[in-house]
Design brief:
- The protein has seven helices and four strands.
- By secondary structure, the protein is α+β, with helices and mostly antiparallel strands.
- The chain has a domain of 47 residues.
Length: 186
């Protein structure tokens, strides 16, 4: 892992981040799509950083790893409204980029679809995703856990329905497993 500091922010570059970049380059014709996805993830996180800077707060660290980019921030950034603004800003950037891309291209391009998926996925009320953090911020701990549990039950119902119809989605089962672990491990 490479660790250095930029303007008081600790930047960590993990081996897995470089592995994903190398794998992307090795994929050949699909590498353009992978780079678009990585770029959309970076723009999502830059939305959080921009919102933090607008609120006179900066991240304590930025970690680049195989799963994306993770920001470290103070436990309680500023006011409640600023915390909500900062958490929602990454998804807002994705939705704005999707809207602008759709208007510009006049259709649902891969860039538009990626931004819609990334923004929507990050709003899911699970684990360390933006939606999970927003639910934790907006509701009491018991209510937040209840909302997350109801969501897990809905995803489980989708998984069971998919299995009964003969089409099991591995990604749906992975999301369900992640949600169950994140909800009940806390």
């Amino acid at each position: 892992m490479f660790v250095f500091e930029v303007s008081g922010v600790q930047v960590k570059l993990c081996f897995s981040f470089f592995a994903v970049i190398c794998l992307t380059c090795l994929l050949g014709s699909e590498s353009g799509r992978m780079l678009i996805m990585l770029g959309c993830c970076a723009l999502h996180e830059l939305g959080h950083v921009a919102a933090m800077l607008l609120c006179s707060c900066k991240p304590t660290e930025m970690t680049f790893y195989g799963g994306g980019i993770r920001l470290g921030a103070p436990r309680r950034i500023n006011s409640f409204a600023q915390d909500v603004f900062i958490l929602a800003s990454g998804c807002a950037v994705n939705f704005l980029l999707a809207f602008a891309g759709c208007i510009t291209a006049g259709r649902l391009t891969f860039f538009v679809q990626t931004n819609l998926l990334l923004g929507g996925f990050n709003l899911l009320p699970i684990g360390f995703l933006d939606g999970g953090k927003l639910i934790d911020l907006l509701l009491s701990p018991n209510k937040a856990k209840a909302v997350k549990a109801v969501f897990a039950v809905l995803v489980a119902a989708l998984a069971v329905t998919a299995m009964l119809c003969g089409g099991v989605s591995p990604s749906l089962l992975c999301v369900l497993g992640f949600m169950v672990v994140s909800i009940f491990a806390a």
